Amino acid sequence: MYDGLMPELPEVQTTVNGLRETVIGRKIVDVWSSYDSAYFKGSETIKDPAYFRRFKKQALGRKIVAVERRAKNVLIELDGGLTILVHMKMTGHLLYGKYRFATKADIKTDPKMVKDPWIAVEPEGLRDPFNRHVRFMLSFDNGRFLALSDMRKFAKVTMLTTAKAKQSEHLSGIGPEPLEKAFTFEKFQERLLLRPRGKVKQVIMDQAIVAGIGNIYADESLWRAGIHPAERVENVPSKKFRELFAAIKKVLSGGIDLGGSSVSDYRNIHGEMGTSQEKHHAYRRTGEKCDRRGCNGTIRRIVIGARGTHYCDKHQKLIKN
Questions:
Q1: Is 176 tagged catalytic?
Q2: What residues contact residue 193 under an 8 Å CB cut-off, 6+ apart?
Q3: Which residue of 76, 147, 219, 227 is surrounded by the most CB atoms within 10 Å?
Q4: Inter-residue contact 247 to 225 (CB < 8 Å)
Q5: Which of 72, 132, 156, 224 is an active site residue?
Q6: Hey, what CATH topology would domain 185-312 get?
Q7: According to the CATH classification, is domain 9-167 in 3.40.1110.10?
Q8: pLDDT (tens digit, 9 = 90+) per residue, 185-221?
Q9: CA–CA distance, 305 with 19 (Å, rounded to integer)
């Protein structure tokens, strides 16, 4: 059982926004990776050394022309019709700045550098201990680097054909983007009712139903809408559906404005923490008094679908058991 700390839509969008300001137009002059897993042998990811060699050959000499987000995936488009997909998973985050590779003298001083050989030079934020687990690195023509710090080695990096990226196994089957204008209330209700007997929290977190929502923003959206996370979708009144629709858009947009939640590993591309966690009303506030106006409830924690789940015991009551 865990509370789920994977970067969600606001964190991924914050990363994308930062990359758009720093790496577009840059040429890739080198590619490095320490991923090497027998479990991923034969996979279409850089964790397979044979695939990484092909990946590196494809990436070298290409310029970055665009950076986009699809659900929780970062899509780095290169010239020549190729796109690097990065899914940061639980502990991964992308970092941009100046690095140097550890020397023998560095390793003698700190033997841990054998496993984490990249040393951050600037900006200062990159020196945060949460940023030291670099597993993948792109080197650019301006002397700067794009690093993937991934302590638990869960992240995914692969190369896609740009024209077919959205139809690839990595992106096909993902639901609509909740912040797009085309995502109307009617579409939202239609998507959730595909799983009428599902618990509402699990349904809004299902990437095949709606893209990008994870544990943190599900708890916060349901708190704002006043819906118990274990309520069945079919039991949610139409008025509450509308409140949840509005809450999701507000919570996700607010998360982006605040640079994402850094309750654990997540950092922006400069190695800095987001501040969205300072505005949480439910997530990880177990035992605290609910701060909803006029509510004297207490934030409780239960487990739904193996995820730690936080809700108010007063204004988020189950309609039906």
A1: no
A2: 233, 234
A3: 219
A4: yes
A5: 72
A6: Helicase, Ruva Protein; domain 3 (1.10.8)
A7: no
A8: 999 999 999 999 999 999 999 999 999 999 999 999 9
A9: 34
